[in-house]
Amino acid sequence: MKKYIRVLPYINKKKILSILKNDSTKNYNFPNNYYFFNSWRAALKFILLELKNNSNKKKLTVWLQDFTCSVVADAIIESWLDIKLIDINLNYYSNDINQLLKIINKVDIFIISHLFGIPNPDYVNICNELRKRNIIIIDDLAQTVWAKINWKEIWKLSDFAIHSYWFDKPLSTLHWWLLINNYSEINIINNYKKLNTESNSKQQLDLATLLLRYEYWISQYNKSDSNYTVSKINLTKFINEAINNKIIFKNYKIKNSYILKIIKYIYIKFLYKLKIKKTQYRPSIEIYKMWCIKKGYIYSLLNDYNKYKNFRVENSKLIIDIINNKKLNATYPKIPSNIDVAYNRFPILSKSITENKKLLMLLKNKNIEAGNYNWQSTIWDYLKFYNLIDYKSDDFPNSNFAKKNIINLPIWSNKIWNNF
Prior knowledge:
- The protein is an alpha/beta fold.
- The protein is 43% helix and 12% strand.
- It has helices at 13-22, 40-53, 70-78, 97-103, 123-132, 189-194, 200-221, 235-244, 246-252, 256-275, 292-324, 353-365, 379-385, 397-405, 415-418; strands at 34-37, 61-65, 82-86, 109-113, 136-141, 148-149, 152-153, 160-164, 177-181, 339-340, 346-349, 406-409.
- The strands form three sheets. A seven-stranded mixed β-sheet has the order 1-9-8-5-4-2-3, with helices on both faces.
- The two termini are 14 Å apart.
- 40% of the residues are buried.
């Protein structure tokens, strides 16, 4: 039996191979307000520094939800801005208007997260309240691509929106992120142009690495070992597979010069992370702009995405039917009819840690990889570790409940759920 991995990356192999073989540097005509960066945190840090340098205030305060990725906090800290946290609504894992109104007079910049591909249902009301007070709005779209409210893309209401194209995101790449700028009060283009650009060879190397990692995941999906968890790939095993699995290189005729570079790249990046001791916070965000080669690849993904998105929505209906038929003891997000969801994975919430363990065991017995949220810690946990925050854990009861009881389900194939 196949192992149904939690996230199957969506890539365009044909486009990758075309770029690797032809070294294409064709420039693609993205809108003028699209800015491409080497990482999500780099994009956020860039725009926060621009806002800081153009502000009359001594120090800006950035508010964000506690239940999200620590890279958001990294960018705020390295921009030397104050960071404040707000709890989430458990119905859709984002903020609601009532939570915001309690703290709105203390906010200079507000980051709205749309997790799992689900737009925040209160988004329009939140944006309207923030607009009245001239508060900067930043959309965190790391897990959401082209989701809509009232048939309008959500990022069109904010000042800035940042997409992520990391390996397990809706569109899969390596180290490429998109900042959409709707804010006319400051001119960011001049400072963006001054940023260093990644070399063509580095961009091609990333593409070759992406293809290799994808093929490795597929090989694990085709294995029958139900105990194998893709999200815990052993570094040595990964490297050995890359060296020994000559089929990957023969099938795709990747240039031999890339092979050693790929292995070295993976080894340095992941082994370095394993050796780091978390004793103090380490500034680490370098900001680069992304150029033609990677832009061309992202262009090809965006053009194909609607078909891919709709397929996942259909699969979510299968999961909802299973829950409603009492085969899974959990709750799921209730999506209003005016929202067009773009699921990355499907979140369900158990009622307790005990029920959570039962659900995970049931799924494991059916050879379905599932698990907690991407991170089993919150922003509070992350900042408290470095003694960078004064809140108490009890200030965020919903975030704490979610991190212990949420389960992400794979949504990329209807085969997983048709015969559940």
